[in-house]
Automatic annotation (TrEMBL):
Pathway: Amino-acid degradation; L-histidine degradation into L-glutamate; N-formimidoyl-L-glutamate from L-histidine: step 3/3. It comes from Microbacterium testaceum. Zn(2+) binds at H65, H67, H220, N294. GO terms for cellular component: cytoplasm. InterPro entries: Amidohydro-rel, HutI, Metal-dep_hydrolase_composite, Metal_Hydrolase. Keywords: Cytoplasm, Histidine metabolism, Hydrolase, Iron, Metal-binding, Zinc. 4-imidazolone-5-propanoate binds at R74, Y132, H159, Q223, T299. Its EC number is 3.5.2.7. This is Imidazolonepropionase. It catalyses: 4-imidazolone-5-propanoate + H2O = N-formimidoyl-L-glutamate. PANTHER family: IMIDAZOLONEPROPIONASE, IMIDAZOLONEPROPIONASE-RELATED. Catalyzes the hydrolytic cleavage of the carbon-nitrogen bond in imidazolone-5-propanoate to yield N-formimidoyl-L-glutamate. It is the third step in the universal histidine degradation pathway. Residues 57-370 form the Amidohydrolase-related domain.
Length: 386
């Protein structure tokens, strides 16, 4: 067991209950946990000393929405979209075909490489979903690979009704044998509740079956138009409803009164040229907001949380502090990981030592210098990421 003191931190954003910002601070890591936080002049000695030289230290990003278990490429679809076509989710079948034909080893290697890319930009906790298998064997395999490669795995068998399948029949398979097959590997279930994907009734069926199996609930909702996804998520106590591009006043009221986190996906909104999710309006209404990358080959082929944070500030009207919170603690709340033993998403004694040292004196630089390589160092569970 080694201890590390990171000292001479120019700006330490704890993102804890008090949202403290400390100057000339230090943090001590003991094994995989944060053991001490305070003034650099009072820091206890440790086995190893890291001189932050005035740079900013944040919690590692918590990316609560990705789809990283896939093979194949959708550049042509992206080009068509940039030429004016709109996103309609049909490309999911293209990725499904490429994913089904990939070997287990290849899918696992692709996932590992994607997690490494995310880590290099400061992400220390990642959720990922199945949903490019869409039959029992392929979904089970995706769930197994996801569970081995990321921190939180989610079953998204209800991503798209496979062509040629009767929707209700497919939903029965998702709720029955598929759910049973993936159950050992996942802690969450998700459903794409949208016109062209799953109706509110079908989504409810999937979510109720998942809840009966002991899984936590997540929903893709209100991405392509107004609908019932957000209100269904709140009604069933889902941990998070993600996308939220089309939010009515009734949706807003439901979110404000409920406990479901609204997860916005800025990179997806840009890549699909969708109306930006109204993150400012959500925050002003008192809704807990998370920011995630939604890294996937169709709508958001980036895992860069700094890019998402910069976009949330520059385009969605969030302050830097609000965007950083949404991309750290917000994601942790959306995954039920913000409190308790081994919590993530904030810098507090006893929490996991998941830390992100910026190559900048303050978090403001994330938005002030968008697109610049501002990650100086990353610790995951107390270990310096390569
Ligand atoms: O979150 N909206 C549904 N699912 C993904 C996109 C899937 C795809 O097009 O491959 C999303 O944006």
């Amino acid at each position: 067991m080694t201890s590390t003191v990171i000292t001479r931190i120019g700006e330490l954003m704890t993102v804890d209950d008090e949202e403290r910002v400390l100057r000339d601070a230090a943090v001590v890591i003991d094994a995989d946990r944060i053991a001490w936080i305070g003034a650099a002049s009072e820091a206890p000695a440790a086995d190893e000393r890291v001189d932050a030289a005035g740079r900013a230290l944040l919690p590692g990003w918590v990316d609560s929405h990705t789809h990283l278990v896939f093979d194949g490429d959708r550049t042509a679809e992206f080009e068509a979209r940039m030429a004016g076509q709109s996103y309609a989710a049909g490309g999911i079948a293209v990725t499904r075909d490429a994913t089904r034909t990939a070997s287990d080893d290849r899918l696992a290697a692709l996932l590992t490489a994607r997690v490494r890319e995310a880590r290099a930009q400061g992400t220390t906790w990642i959720e990922t979903k199945t949903g490019y298998g869409l039959d029992l064997a392929s979904e089970e395999r995706s769930a197994r690979i996801a569970a081995a490669g990321v921190d939180d795995a989610t079953f998204l068998g209800a991503h798209l009704v496979p062509a040629g399948r009767d929707a209700d029949d497919y939903v029965r398979e998702v709720c029955g044998p598929m759910l049973e097959a993936v159950r050992p590997f996942v802690s969450w279930a998700d459903v794409f509740c949208e016109r062209g994907a799953f109706s509110p009734e079908q989504s409810r069926e999937v979510l109720l079956a998942a809840r009966t199996s002991g899984l936590g609930l997540r929903v893709h909702g209100n991405q392509l138009g107004h609908g019932e996804g957000i209100r269904l998520a709140v009604e069933l106590g889902a941990a998070s409803v993600d996308h939220c591009n089309f939010v009515s006043d009734a949706d807003l009221d439901a979110l404000a009164e409920g406990s479901t986190v609204a997860t916005v996906l800025p990179a997806c909104d840009l890549s699909t040229r969708a109306p930006l999710a109204p993150a400012r309006r959500l925050l002003d209404a008192g809704v807990e907001v998370a920011i995630a990358s939604n890294c996937n080959p169709g709508t958001s082929y980036t895992s860069s949380m700094p890019f998402c944070v910069a976009t949330a500030v520059l385009q969605m009207g969030l302050s830097v502090a609000e965007a950083v919170r949404a991309a750290t603690r917000g994601g942790a709340i959306a995954l039920g990981r913000a409190t308790g033993e081994g919590a993530v998403g904030s810098i507090a004694v006893g929490h996991r030592a998941d830390l992100h040292l910026l190559d900048a004196p303050s978090a403001t630089h994330l938005a002030y210098r968008p697109g610049m390589p501002l990650t100086a160092a990353v610790w995951k569970d107390g270990h310096r990421a390569p």
